[in-house]
Amino acid sequence: MLTILGALLAVVAISIALRDKPFGIERVWTLAFGPPDLGPVDFSRLVRRTTPNDALICPPGLCGGARSDLPSPVFALSAPDLREKIRAVALAEPGAVQVAEAVSGRGDRYVVRTPLMRYPDTVDVLVLPQPEGKSTVALYSRSQIGRSDLGANLARLKRWLAALGAG
Q1: Could you read off the pLDDT tens digit of each residue along the chain, which spans 167 residues?
Q2: Quick one: DSSP state of residue 36?
Q3: Residues 110 and 96: beta-carbon distance below 8 Å
Q4: Cβ–Cβ under 8 Å, residues 72 and 127
Q5: How far apart are CA 17 and CA 165, in angstroms?
Q6: CB-side exposure of 82: number of CA atoms within 13 Å?
Q7: Residue 154 and residue 125: Cα distance in Å, rounded?
Q8: How far apart are CA 13 and CA 112, in angstroms?
Q9: How far apart are CA 39 and CA 6, in angstroms?
Q10: Which of 24, 35, 43, 99 is the most exposed place for a label (fewest CB within 10 A)?
């Protein structure tokens, strides 16, 4: 037990020391685990992970039967307006960068790094138009590193929804 604790403390100390260096901890994670962007998801065929390190918010019937962690709210905004608002919320998140824009113009993908250890999480966003000029959203956030995210992905999606005025 003491050896595991010592190793964990060493990793934390190294990550803090390297976090702002050009070849710091982010480079270490890339070398060890590959590119931080996990790539796009197809929401219609989405299969949730068997490990507790992802979170999903999806309108009924869209995500191939995958269990949604929260209901997908309907917003009194057009799809383009909601997409821009989500982009602003996502990019306001510390450590977030947009890595892809969907060809359809309705979806985007972000990599968001955790504050201390700089672990990369990939967040897919799909905005869907609804009747009467409204819209809804599918959000899937998943960790690249670790078996558990300690609730970080779900907390992020809840924070984003709250910032969008849905909570």
Answers
A1: 557 666 556 666 665 555 555 458 888 887 887 888 899 999 999 999 899 999 999 999 999 889 999 999 999 999 999 999 999 999 999 999 999 997 765 689 999 998 888 899 999 999 999 999 999 999 999 999 988 999 999 999 999 999 998 75
A2: S
A3: yes
A4: no
A5: 37
A6: 26
A7: 14
A8: 21
A9: 34
A10: 35
Q: What CA–CA distance (Å, rounded) separates 16 from 25?
A: 8
Task: Give the predicted TM-score (pTM) of the model.
Answer: 0.82
CA angle in degrees (0–180, nearest 5) for 85-39-86? 5
Q: Which residue has the tokens 């799909």?
A: 126
Tokens encoding 22 = 């050009």
The answer to whether 62 and 56 are in contact (CB under 8 A) is: no
3-class DSSP state for residue 163?
helix
Instruction: Identify the structural domains of the chain with CATH numbers, from first to last.
Output: 1-34 (no CATH), 36-163 (3.30.310.80)
- Radius of gyration of the chain measured on its C-alpha atoms: 17
Length of the chain: 167
How many angstroms separate the CA atoms of 138 and 107, rounded?
A: 9
